[in-house]
Amino acid sequence: MELQDYFENTGGTGILATSDSDGRVDAAIYSRPHFLDDGTLAFVMRDRLTHANLQSNPYATYLFIEQGPGYHGKRLFLEKTGESSDPALINRYKRRTPTQTDGEALFLVYFKIDRQLPLLGGQRS
């Protein structure tokens, strides 16, 4: 729950980085993750490059930069564990209103956290 509390109470900017099976990298602005009871986290995503990359490479990194002076935040190293296109389930987690999605396909993509590091520094492995 410590990480969930952090994201619920800390303002900032999140970036989700993925790559395809050939290693071509993409990074996109993403809101704070949703934490599920089983310890996994999820993001609601459109069917764009980030989602496409996760079809062939399940690994991603979420970088969160806290608002305020200096450089503070978190780096989460993630592995995709599944996804759902169930509209009722997605609507439970959406932070935007339905009109803001323009009818585009949405997915709720689940991840386990492989490793967590601070924004700056950390260990090498």
TrEMBL record:
Top-rank lineage group of the source organism: Bacteria
Protein's name according to its UniProt entry: Pyridoxamine 5'-phosphate oxidase
Taxonomic placement: Bacteria, Pseudomonadati, Thermodesulfobacteriota, Desulfobulbia, Desulfobulbales
